[in-house]
């Protein structure tokens, strides 16, 4: 496992939103739309180890705009977790390292140790969104529109939350949850 040195260049969620040109209002609304139940909040508060979450993404990407607020909401509850975002366009070399079948996917969510070693990763969108997006043969523009609507669905946000919570908990276990 190599160190993800680009962490130092990444920005926090508030700075990312301040610099974003697209999907800003959607991201702000989605942050407020993410409802966590008591069990999820307890899990976030129980994280024992320092965990860093690095997102490689862009404000133009509907998947980033749909999932970044979920992560930001999680981090707002857990004092042991820090979130930073790295622009995928400005960091294409690093982004390419996480390609899937030769294609760059956005966002790439990396769960890192305090030493910036990768523990686990999540790429692009929740499983439920893949299923819906793959059901139809859509043009690129129609796919973008459908994704924008899809991330307004509370069930898709819950799917993202569940998958990301599972990986955060797994990262905590890998670091020796005490």
- The CATH superfamily appears as Glutaredoxin
Distance between the termini: 23 Å
What order do the SSEs take from the amino end to the carboxyl end, as H and E? HHHEHEHEEHHH
The whole-number mean of residue pLDDT values reads: 90
Name some characteristics of this structure.
48% helix, single chain, 14% strand, 4 strands, 8 helices, Glutaredoxin, alpha+beta, 178 residues
Description:
The structure is a single chain. The chain is an alpha+beta fold and 178 residues long. 48% of the residues lie in helices and 14% in strands. The chain has helices at 13-19, 24-33, 38-45, 62-77, 92-96, 127-134, 140-150, 154-174; strands at 51-57, 81-87, 108-112, 118-123. It has a 4-stranded mixed sheet with strand order 2-1-3-4, with helices on one face. The longest helix is centred in the last third of the chain and has 21 residues, at 154-174. The mean pLDDT is 90.
In a nutshell, what does this entry contain?
With 178 residues, the protein is an alpha+beta fold. The chain contains eight helices and four strands; from the N terminus they run αααβαβαββααα.
Present the secondary structure layout.
Layout: H1 13-19, H2 24-33, H3 38-45, E1 51-57, H4 62-77, E2 81-87, H5 92-96, E3 108-112, E4 118-123, H6 127-134, H7 140-150, H8 154-174
Parallel strand pairs: 1-2
Antiparallel strand pairs: 1-3, 3-4
């Amino acid at each position: 496992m190599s160190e993800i040195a680009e962490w130092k260049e990444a920005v926090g969620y508030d700075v990312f939103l301040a610099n974003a040109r697209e999907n800003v209002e959607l991201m702000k609304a989605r942050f407020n739309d993410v409802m966590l139940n008591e069990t999820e909040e307890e899990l976030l508060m129980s994280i024992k180890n320092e965990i860093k979450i690095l997102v490689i993404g862009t404000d133009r990407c509907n998947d980033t705009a749909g999932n970044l607020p979920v992560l930001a909401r999680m981090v707002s509850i857990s004092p042991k977790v820090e979130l930073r975002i790295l622009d995928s366009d400005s960091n294409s070399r690093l982004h390419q390292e996480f390609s899937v079948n030769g294609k760059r996917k956005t966002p790439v969510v990396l769960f890192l140790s305090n030493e910036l070693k990768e523990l686990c990763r999540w790429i692009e969108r929740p499983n439920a969104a893949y299923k819906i997006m793959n059901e139809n043969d859509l043009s690129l523009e129609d796919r973008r529109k459908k994704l924008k609507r899809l991330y307004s669905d509370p069930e898709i946000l819950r799917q993202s939350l569940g998958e990301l919570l599972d990986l955060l908990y797994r990262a905590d276990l890998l670091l020796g949850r005490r």
